[in-house]
Amino acid sequence: MFVIVAYDVNVKRVAKVLKIGRKYLNWVQNSLLEGELTKAKYERLKAELKEVIDEKEDSIVFYTLRTPQYMKRELMGLDKGGQELII
Fold first, then answer.
1. pLDDT band at residue 86, thresholds of 50, 70 and 90?
2. Is residue 58 within a helix (H) or strand (E), and if so which, with residue range?
3. In what order do the strands lie in the sheet with 32-36?
4. Distance CA 11, CA 24 (A)
5. From the DSSP assignment, how many helices (H) and strands (E) are in the chain?
6. Which CATH architecture has domain 2-69?
7. What gap in Å lies between CA 32 and CA 60, rounded to an integer?
8. Residue 79: helix, strand or coil by DSSP?
9. What's the pLDDT tens digit per position in 15-39?
10. If you average pLDDT over residues 59-82, what whole number do you get?
């Protein structure tokens, strides 16, 4: 599945959330990640993030698509993140 993750977390947790997210997805720009994941990796990603965030203060939104084939991605301005997954 193709996953897009947008997050708005307290500044104290931003680096931790980004580090976890980059283990699974490509960083696109501030607070936004995307990429292909298996169902198992998607569940692991959510579990790891749940351990780090404060659900009373932070917000993470997950968008899932079966395939990116029908999704149009358009960029305006600077490409901040790139498309490569660094392992």
1. very low
2. none
3. 26-29, 32-36, 2-8, 59-65
4. 21
5. 2, 4
6. 2-Layer Sandwich (3.30)
7. 10
8. coil
9. 999 999 999 999 999 999 999 999 9
10. 78
